[in-house]
Amino acid sequence: MSERRGSNKFEDMELRRGPWTLEEDTLLIHYIACHGEGRWNLLAKCSGLKRTGKSCRLRWLNYLKPDIKRGNLSPEEQFLILELHSKWGNRWSRIAQHLPGRTDNEIKNYWRTRVQKQARQLKIDANSATFRDAIRCSWMPRLLEKMGSSQSMPPLIDSNATATAGMIDQTPHGGRPPQPFSNPAMQHPFENCSSYDPSSSENHSPSTSSASMALPKLPYLSEFSSNPANSYHGFTFNPFMGGHCIDHSGYGLDTMDPAPASASQLGSSVSEYNYSMAANNCVDNIGDGLWNMDELWYICKKAT
DNA sequence: AAACGTTGCAACCGCTTTCCA
DNA sequence: TTGGAAAGCGGTTGCAACGTT
């Protein structure tokens, strides 16, 4: 069971808690470099760290491990999170397996701070079908649009990440994280996500990936999928969703500015609605929103 | 500029699952 | 088969940075 159970010399000595120091990080990295991962309790005892094995493991897996990717989630990653969460729910570690370099903790934080925030503002349950519909009808298509429009989007994985050294240098221990690492390299959105197969049900075969296979699940998108002109890197996006004012900043939904047109001004049919969205797309220019409150409100209203 | 509120994320906690003798 | 230890997981909390008044 956990290391707090029972009592021995190691546990009786004063254990450190809270933010990790540079010295502790260095010690942990050095120990793992020499002895490898695993045996966390043993590591905690032998490394000289006054931490629990559990704490050491968490620090390593969530922060120090060299292949950890830091910085804002790309639209591709956000799309995957939304898609996989709709399928598996709060299975963070499982979702994280399909986002190389991202940790379950990071994904969990993204969901809580970004996604659930929107649900709270709408006063609806983040796990409700209504909210899921809103995600599928508005958020995800816009992410696809972003993925198709951004030529400078970060790669899904930074294979050159030497995060360890970089992080030690940049990490304000206990404080807010450093600015995201940048890598201008361009990759296929799912090049390194080989195990992700959105079309399969429970089990995901670790082989081919074709994100466009997710399209039948996305209303408004499937009708365009047959036209190669509408596809990008295997994705197909709806030209009526989103528009020309695509922002290229990190998270797509940090802020949700009120749409210029109120929901009542939007058309009643889907196509009318989509057209209105295109017409009103300066919203994305004003803020960083992939969607806005009126839009969500409209979709949720339609769904109920 | 200072006080206060909000945000984002690292770290912790407790429970479950897996491993192994 | 069983029981203890280790590892894994998801929920929650604490706090520094940032934004607003």
TrEMBL record:
Alphabetized PROSITE patterns for the sequence: HTH_MYB, MYB_LIKE
An example Gene Ontology molecular-function term: sequence-specific DNA binding
Disordered: region residues: 166-212
Gene Ontology terms: cellular component: nucleus
CDD domains: SANT
Chief place of localization: nucleus
Biased composition (Low complexity): 194-212
Organism: Elaeis guineensis var. tenera
Organism lineage: Eukaryota, Viridiplantae, Streptophyta, Embryophyta, Tracheophyta
Domain of life: Eukaryota
Stretches assigned to the HTH myb-type domain: 12-64, 65-119
Protein name, UniProt field: Transcription factor MYB62
Keywords assigned: DNA-binding, Nucleus, Repeat, Transcription, Transcription regulation
Cellular compartment(s): Nucleus
Myb-like domain sequence ranges: 12-64, 65-115
